[in-house]
Amino acid sequence: xxxxxxxxxxxxxxxxxxxxxxxxxxxxxxxxxxxxxxxxxxxxxxxxxxxxxxxxxxxxxxxxxxxxxxxxxxxxxxxxxxxxxxxxxxxxxxxxxxxxxxxxxxxxxxxxxxxxxxxxxxxxxxxxxxxxxxxxxxxxxxxxxxxxxxxxxxxxxxxxxxxxxxxxxxxxxxxxxxxxxxxxxxxxxxxxxxxxxxxxxxxxxxxxxxxxxxxxxxxxxxxxxxxxxxxxxxxxxxxxxxxxxxxxxx
Length: 250
Fold this sequence. Notes:
This protein is an alpha+beta fold. The chain folds into 3 domains: 7-30 and 179-246, Elongation Factor Tu (Ef-tu), domain 3, CATH 2.40.30; 32-64 and 141-176, CATH 2.40.50.100; 66-139, Helix Hairpins, CATH 1.10.287. The chain contains 4 helices and 14 strands. Strands 1-10-13-12-11-14 form a 6-stranded antiparallel beta barrel. Strands 2-9-7-4 form a 4-stranded antiparallel sheet, with no helix packed on it. A 4-stranded antiparallel sheet has the order 6-5-3-8, with no helix packed on it. The chain is elongated, with a radius of gyration of 31 Å. The two termini are 26 Å apart. The model is unreliable at 9-20 (pLDDT under 50).
């Protein structure tokens, strides 16, 4: 496994004594995701700050939604009007059907009433689609976290104009939590206590974190590097946090 350049000097500083029950480790960063919106407009609200832990689906920021809200209002009014038209067409069809049953109306006239009712139903269905499209447009004016993580950078402020035409403008950077790794340097004797896939415990202050040995790699000079995969969680401390890896007794 190839380690990022920033991890190597930190690991080299962690020289645990042979036979120790705990060794020093360090928490690496998660993958960083630049996030933006496909639309253009003015930033209305920014709901997060650097360092905030967020869950998947958390609203991070919103662009101006005045036009989107106006579209929804207009779509709802149109939907109400189409419902009234359908109700009126249905009443007229019922009246025409009653007259036809009494042989007071020609079949041609009844067929025209049926066509008008079908037309009113089609217009109502179209109005429902227009409202759904307006609601999706409103939802698309807000940026939500695609996965759980921690805000690594905020590149937008309220009032800022955003232009996303040929490419999406990054507005935030999210450090995702679904693939975090801790790293430690071990002696050969300590490395012999671990195997890939083994469950281990790391300590961060008073927090106990369950992890799983991902890789063990010989470094030379009798030392090994271990990478430990951590579970997806918004409770993990930030990258660079010192940890203590509990080793099983030999």
